[in-house]
Amino acid sequence: MRVFWRRPSADLALVAGLVYLNQALFTVYVLREHGGDVSFVASYLPSGWFALADGPAMRAFASHVPAPGLLAPSVLRVQAFLELPFVLLAYGVVLRRLSVRWYRRMLDGPPLWAASATYTTVFCLVEQHFSNPYTDADIAIRIASAVITPLWIGWTTRHDPAAERPLGVVGLVAFGAFTWALGQLVLTVYDTALLYNLGHLPGRLPSALVASAVLVGARVVADRYGERGEPGVAVRTVTAGLRWALVLFFVPALAVRYGVNLGLALPSAAAGLAVCVAAALLAVREALRGQNRVRVAGWCGQMARAAGVGGVAGLVARHAASDAYYEAALLRSAAVAFLAAVLVCAGTDRPCAGTDRLSRPADAARRRS
Predict the structure, then answer these.
(1) pTM, whole model, 2 decimals?
(2) Which of 317, 354, 361, 352 lies closest to 337 in space, CA to CA?
(3) pLDDT tens, 179-228?
(4) Residue 196 burial (CB < 10 Å; 0-12/13-18/19+)?
(5) Of 345, 332, 348, 17, which Cα lies nearest the Cα of 179?
(6) Positive or negative, the Cα torsion across 251, 124, 109, 88?
(7) CB burial class (10 A; 0-12, 13-18, 19+) of residue 310?
(8) Distance CA 292, CA 299 (A)
(9) What is the dihedral sign for C-alpha 18, 91, 307, 270?
(10) Which segments does the entry list as coiled coil (predicted)?
C-alpha cells in the first residue's frame, strides 16, 4: 500500500477525488445558500460552466448538511489549489508510462519547479482575464499551490520504486491506448468537475467507463507484454520523437494551450511547432546514429509511409464523431495516427532487421540477452 501511494497515478486519483468532493459540496452550498441559483458567480465566467447536479438525491443530501454557509470556499477557491497538481500529475503519469528515467528527471528538481511556475503564471493570467470578486484570493491560492505542489510531487517521485523498462512494439501500442484513455478521463474531470458541471456526469459516464476499461487493459498488456516486439530503426524513431516531445513540451505546455484563449494564437502555434521540430531532429539523430546510407534511405521511405498512413488515419478519426470539446477530437486523432504510424513502422522494420545497427548500448545489451 505504501508503494502504491508513491505512484503518480494514485496521487492523480486522489486529487480527482478531492475535486469531485468539492463539486458535491459546492452544489450543497448553492442549493442551500442561493436556492440553486448560480448567477452570483456564473455571471463572471463564460458559458459552459455551472451545470448543477441538483436532482432529488442531491437535494435530499444537501438538506441534511449542517452549516452550509461554511462551504463558501468550494466556490472557485478549492479548484484554484487543486488544478495545478491535477495537470502536473496527469503529465507525470503519461511520461512515467513511456520512460521512468525521464519521468524522474522531469517530475523532480528544476524542470518540475519551472513547469509549476509557468503553469501557475498561465492560470493567474486566465484568472485576470475573467476578473471577478474571487480573483485576488484565487491568485494567492494558486501561488501557494505552486510552492506546495512541487514539494509533494518531487517527494513522491524520489520515492517511486519503478524501474526503467524497454518498450517493444506491443508496449508502444499499449502506451498509445493508455494515453488516449487517460486523456479522455482528464477531459471528463475538466468538464464535469473543474468547470463545475457535475450535472454533465451522467451523460459522460458511459464514455468514461469505456476509457477506464481501455486504461486498465492497456496497463495490463504493457506490464505483461510491453517488451515484446523488438523495435527497429523506424519504431525507435517514433519512440524517441514521442519521448523528446513530452520532455520538451513539459514546461511550456499550458502556455501553448491557453495562448489561443489569451489572444496569442500565432506565438502559441510557433512555440508548439518549435517543440515538434526540435523533438523530431533529436529523435532522428538518436535513431539513425551509426546507420549506413542504404539503411537511412530505407528509413526515409518507411517514415514517409508511416506519416502518410498515420495522417490519413488521424484525419478520419478526427471527423469520426462530434465532440463537445475540440481537445477530445485532437486526442482521438493523435492517438489513432500514432498507433497507425507505429504499426506501419513495425511492419516495415521487419524486412530491414538484418541491416539495422543498434544506436544505443542499452539496445545492444538487450538484443545480446
Answers:
(1) 0.90
(2) 317
(3) 999 999 999 999 999 999 999 999 999 999 999 999 999 999 999 988 88
(4) buried
(5) 332
(6) negative
(7) buried
(8) 11
(9) positive
(10) none
Q: How far out from the chain centre does Cα 326 lie? A: 15
Kindly report the backbone phi and psi dihedral angles of residue 257, in degrees, each rounded to the nearest multiple of 5, phi listed first.
-65, -45
The SS3 assignment for 125 reads: helix
Backbone angles phi, psi at 269, to 5 degrees: -65, -40
Q: Provide the grid cell at 216.
A: 486498465
Measured between alpha carbons, how far is residue 194 from residues 32, 138, 226 in Å? 21, 14, 34
Which region, left, alpha or beta, applies to residue 356 given φ > 0 means left and ψ of -120 to 50 means alpha? beta
**Rounded CA gap, 49 and 38, in Å?**
10
Which residues, 6+ apart, have CB-to-CB distance to 314 below 8 Å?
Answer: 333, 334, 336, 337, 340
Q: How many angstroms from the chain centroid is the CA of residue 229?
A: 26
Question: How confident is the model over 297-350, as pLDDT tens digits?
Answer: 999 999 999 999 999 999 999 888 887 778 888 899 999 999 999 999 999 987
Residue whose entry in the numeric block shows the C-alpha cell 480527482: 16
Alpha-carbon distance of 125 to 252, in angstroms, equals: 15
Extract the C-alpha cell encoding 68.
452550509
Grid cell in block for residue 333: 486523432
Instruction: Provide the 10 A C-beta neighbour count for residue 230.
Output: 18
Q: Which residues contact 361 (CB under 8 A, 6 or more apart)?
A: none
Any idea what the Cα angle at residue 307 is, between residues 266 and 258, rounded to 5°?
25
Cell of 304: 514517409
